[in-house]
Amino acid sequence: MENVTCDCGAVYREKRHRLPVRDKDTANCHLCGAEIRSWNGGVMYTYELIKNPKNASSDDVGEK
Q: Most C-beta atoms within 10 A of its C-beta, which of 19, 23, 24, 52?
């Protein structure tokens, strides 16, 4: 796991998941809609919002 910061300042916890098949997708910021990551392979990523730039921390926990 690692933290990823969007250009808008939102911070996400990134989790990597290995898959038995290829997956093609993108993850976008919950706040501004910017693309955080795209992938095409035997791995997928989920993101949990851990810091909202408008708040000290976020209760808005979600995955993408």
A: 52
